[in-house]
Write a structure and sequence with these properties.
With 282 residues, the chain is α/β, with parallel strands linked by helices. It has one domain (44-275): Dihydrofolate Reductase, subunit A, CATH 3.40.430. The protein has seven helices and twelve strands. The two termini are 29 Å apart. It is globular and about 55 Å long. Helix 1 (8-18) packs parallel to helix 2 (30-40).
């Protein structure tokens, strides 16, 4: 396990990587660079997924309370990830449950563009995210969804595939707008769809020392019958203080005997609000 302590000087050096500045870590900075360099220095399309959960894998209580799952260092880690990407994406269920701002506040650095997957045009425009206009706000809807305006946002209508809006279509639409580094922050099935589509390069699972006992889990992939069909990513573990982060390299993921199964977009499924809670923090 690597111990990571982020000073202001170290964080500014990591931020410089985002701008393409060549920076080499000092001896006591190697762990932090190993964790954040793949995001900060990514070239071309890059997708990071982030899950904050309890020891028993829960991301919220059964009633959707997720505000205090991550500890202070886990929150800082999430905000660092936001500062290193071009855009952060969540589903409509997460917006309904958490009313997140999706900005960078716990650390220094730029806030990303904000993206909401709203296939059925459920947003009212009264959500808190619409009251902050510091960065672009993009809303993805299906081509069949009603054509309503949302002041302060760009509404993008994408084709409805067999299982809803295809993650590849969302990634391509963002890349066309110069937003290539993407953080998928919630909810669980939204993250799962990006993973199942093979689009996630790195998965960060931040574990906080609490046991909730019941409630939604962080990732909901199709069931498997045998463990030899499980994904086995190359993983490194980092102690951040209040939270532990598992950094999973899904590009080096080893899977044998697994047959692909498509996942319905949680935001379009009945009861989707409970599936998409608790992953994005305010």
């Amino acid at each position: 396990m690597h111990r990571v302590v982020i000073t202001d000087r170290l964080w500014n050096r990591i931020l410089a990587l985002r701008k393409g500045v060549p920076v080499s870590p000092a001896e006591n900075e190697e762990a932090a660079f190993r964790l954040y360099r793949p995001v900060a220095a990514a070239e071309g399309p890059f997708v990071l997924a982030q899950v904050g959960q309890s020891l028993d894998g829960r991301v919220a209580t059964p009633k959707g309370d997720a505000r205090d799952i991550s500890g202070p260092d886990g929150i800082c880690h999430l905000h660092r990830c936001r500062a290193l990407v071009d855009a952060v994406l969540v589903g409509i269920g997460t917006v309904k449950a958490d009313d997140p701002r999706l900005s960078v506040r716990a650390v220094s650095g730029p806030s990303p563009a904000r993206v909401i997957v709203d296939p059925r045009a459920e947003l009212s425009g009264e959500e808190r995210i619409f009251r902050e206009s510091a960065t672009p706000l993009i809303v993805f809807r299906t081509a069949e969804a009603r054509r309503t305006r949302l002041d302060g946002s760009e509404v993008v209508h994408l084709p409805r595939r067999a299982n809803g809006i295809d993650p590849r279509d969302m990634r391509d639409a963002l890349a066309a707008r110069g937003l290539e580094r993407l953080l998928v922050e919630g909810g669980g099935r939204t993250i799962a769809r990006f993973i199942d589509a093979g689009l996630v390069d790195r998965l960060h699972v931040a574990v906080a020392p609490l046991i909730i006992g019941s409630g939604p889990t962080g990732i909901s992939l199709p069931p498997i019958d045998r463990l030899d069909a499980a994904r086995r990513p190359l993983t490194e573990v980092y102690a951040l203080g209040s939270d532990i982060v598992f950094d999973c390299d899904l590009r080096a993921c080893r899977v044998s005997g697994r047959k692909g199964q498509e996942i319905t977009v949680a935001d379009e499924a009945p009861g989707a609000g409970t599936a998409d809670v608790g992953l994005a923090k305010p």
